[in-house]
């Protein structure tokens, strides 16, 4: 793997100064006793290594996320006098290994200082004691409670994101208006919308892929848990085995099975489709009225940021109405890393309110800081209103002893490939029993 350094303006200035010094020395050759020359020795700087997947797939595409992140990295470099180098994942280096598999291996072997991690990896490394407790950082005091909840393991805050990634339903409002449909609130209303659309010639009302159908499940499984008054007690019951994850998950899987049985979702196509690449063209062409995606897709012209129709982004149907689903990535510090303390201070600046305001302004995303507000595009207002009102479910929660986002995604794929709902529930029971046995 190649290490790619990020050069800020001050580092280029240092390079130019070195070149100028060399030219000055050359010009003095042949002159005696150049007493006015002082050796130019650049002081060695601490290098903090950051492992991240944020590489461009298309070399000509603008990587807005990387640009925004670079701005916060530059703030940390300037304030601390350190250098942050990126170690980046590319498929050609690891062939068929996933980013999660590679980041687990690198963190376990202390190969980097700072990591951008997915939810399941955060939970795994947190349980193994490989990640630093970040709760003492000054910037941690400003975090939304949803961030703390999602990234706390054994009482330790082990990861902090630069944005809160929210998933919702992207709806072609023009088509809904044409057929006199209101934006659905409940599972029953959603099924009725699909029925009307299909009866009016929309072959497949819901465009799906193999990654994001679990969002429907989470909305129905955990709406009351996260928006009630007994979340801690309910999670404790799940972790002890007193309650079963399968009981929470069953309604969402039965709902997906109904969508499949009625032809509202093409299960065979979804099982092999990549996100946005498969369903995106039909959605943009007005052939598919409903898709699911993350917040940032509404801001990006390469996704759904520029449509020829009115688009609305709403929460997923649940007993409590439209429900945003929020999984949580995060930046984490390897506790045994060579420059762990320096990395923690870099992170402290990267997730400060000042840095997060810059990041959020550039990406137009939800900030993990309760103090940072950003205007969203009109299409996102319904989703944003729910989140700002504190109405959402977590798609990942490091406080649960069974990892949610990745496991649910994989079990949904089994459903798409023909498994029964009962078989899917048995898979959740097996995961829960394994977690209980590991804790015994």
Describe this protein's structure:
The strands form four sheets. This protein has a five-stranded mixed beta sheet, with helices on both faces. Strands 8-9-7-10 form a four-stranded mixed beta sheet. A two-stranded antiparallel ribbon has the order 5-6. Helix 17 packs antiparallel against helix 18 (421-439). It has 440 residues and is α/β, with parallel strands linked by helices. Strand 2, helix 2 (64-80) and strand 3 (83-88) form a beta-alpha-beta unit. It has helices at 9-27, 64-80, 91-94, 99-108, 119-127, 145-150, 173-178, 187-199, 214-226, 231-240, 245-261, 267-270, 280-284, 340-350, 353-363, 381-388, 405-416, 421-439; strands at residues 3-5, 47-52, 83-88, 114-117, 152-153, 156-157, 167-172, 206-207, 290-294, 311-314, 325-326, 330-333, 393-394. The protein is globular, with a radius of gyration of 25 Å.
SSE layout:
Blueprint: E1 3-5, H1 9-27, E2 47-52, H2 64-80, E3 83-88, H3 91-94, H4 99-108, E4 114-117, H5 119-127, H6 145-150, E5 152-153, E6 156-157, E7 167-172, H7 173-178, H8 187-199, E8 206-207, H9 214-226, H10 231-240, H11 245-261, H12 267-270, H13 280-284, E9 290-294, E10 311-314, E11 325-326, E12 330-333, H14 340-350, H15 353-363, H16 381-388, E13 393-394, H17 405-416, H18 421-439
Parallel strand pairs: 2-3, 2-4, 8-9, 11-13
Antiparallel strand pairs: 1-3, 4-12, 5-6, 7-9, 7-10
Helix pairs in contact: 2-14, 2-15, 4-5, 9-11, 11-18, 17-18
């Amino acid at each position: 793997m190649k290490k790619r350094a990020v050069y800020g303006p001050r580092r280029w200035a240092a390079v130019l100064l070195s070149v100028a010094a060399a030219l000055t020395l050359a010009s003095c050759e042949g002159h005696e006793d150049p007493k006015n020359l002082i050796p130019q020795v650049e002081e060695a700087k601490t290098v903090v290594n950051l492992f991240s997947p944020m590489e461009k797939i298309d070399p000509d595409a603008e990587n807005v996320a990387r640009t925004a992140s670079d701005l916060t990295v530059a703030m940390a470099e300037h304030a601390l006098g350190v250098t942050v180098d990126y170690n980046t994942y590319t498929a050609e280096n690891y062939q068929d290994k996933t980013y999660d598999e590679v980041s687990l291996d690198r963190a376990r072997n202390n190969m980097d200082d700072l990591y951008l991690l997915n939810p399941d990896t955060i939970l795994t490394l947190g349980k193994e004691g490989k990640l630093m407790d970040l709760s003492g950082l000054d910037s941690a005091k400003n975090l939304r409670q949803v961030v703390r909840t999602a990234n706390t393991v054994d009482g330790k805050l082990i990861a902090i994101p630069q944005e809160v990634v929210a998933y919702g339903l992207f709806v072609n409002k023009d088509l809904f208006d044409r057929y006199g449909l209101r934006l659905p609130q409940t599972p029953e209303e959603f099924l009725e919308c699909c029925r009307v659309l299909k009866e009016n010639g929309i072959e497949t009302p819901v465009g799906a892929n193999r990654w994001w159908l679990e969002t429907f499940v989470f909305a129905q499984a955990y709406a009351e848990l996260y928006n009630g008054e007994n979340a801690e007690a309910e999670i404790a019951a799940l972790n002890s085995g007193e309650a079963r994850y399968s009981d929470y998950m069953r309604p969402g899987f039965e709902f997906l099975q109904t969508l499949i049985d009625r032809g509202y979702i093409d299960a065979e196509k979804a099982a092999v489709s990549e996100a946005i690449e498969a369903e995106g063209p039909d959605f943009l062409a007005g052939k598919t009225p409903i898709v699911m995606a993350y917040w940032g897709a509404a801001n990006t012209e390469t996704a759904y940021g520029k449509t020829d129709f009115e688009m609305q982004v709403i929460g997923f149907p649940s007993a409590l109405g439209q429900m945003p689903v929020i999984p949580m990535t995060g930046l984490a510090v390897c506790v045994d890393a060579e420059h762990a303390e320096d990395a923690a201070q870099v992170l402290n600046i990267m997730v400060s309110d000042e840095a997060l305001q810059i990041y959020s302004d550039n990406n137009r995303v939800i900030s993990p800081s309760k103090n940072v507000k950003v205007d969203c595009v009109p299409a996102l207002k319904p989703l944003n209103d729910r989140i700002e009102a504190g109405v959402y479910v977590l798609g990942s929660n490091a406080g649960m002893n069974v990892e949610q986002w990745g496991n649910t995604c994989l079990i949904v794929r089994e459903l798409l490939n023909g498994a029964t709902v009962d078989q899917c529930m048995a898979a959740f029971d097996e995961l829960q029993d394994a977690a209980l046995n590991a804790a015994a």
